[in-house]
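Dear colleagues,

As part of the handover before I leave the project, I'm documenting each prediction I ran so the next person doesn't have to rerun anything. This entry is a single chain, and its sequence is reproduced below.
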Amino acid sequence: MRTNRLTDHLKWVRVLGRSAGRPVDDQPGRFFYRVTRRVPPEADFYKLAIDKYPVKPDDVTDEDYATWDAWSFYDSEEGARRIGTARTNLGNRIVRFKIPAGAGLTWDESDDDGHQNVRGDRDVLERYLDRTCVAAVKGDASPRS
């Protein structure tokens, strides 16, 4: 049975207002977007900054370091495109994670531009990757790997 993509999207994205620190379990579902080099993303896509730098560097604020135990996502394709355009080293493809209620992941908004810090188990997060690429960051590059 085919489903209407808009209906499917609206069914998953029913989040109004700020959701800081609320578990995804409390929500009907969420989409999160992130820039990557390949689709599907390679293993380093899932590494956390805290794993790379377990001791806080001197030039990093305590507030910023407190977010290093989370994956950086955006709540919209446009937000991911903005960071992908500003930081070209991240890649040129945008992937989407469709995280349902009951997944056991949490998120909090770190600022007003739609940036989200997502926390939880890597295997759980990886399970909810939408295996298709949403879009290219810029240009006419194919959104596929």
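Confidence is low (pLDDT under 50) at residues 1-26. The helical segments are 5-12, 49-52, 62-65, 77-86, 122-127.

All the best with the project,
I.
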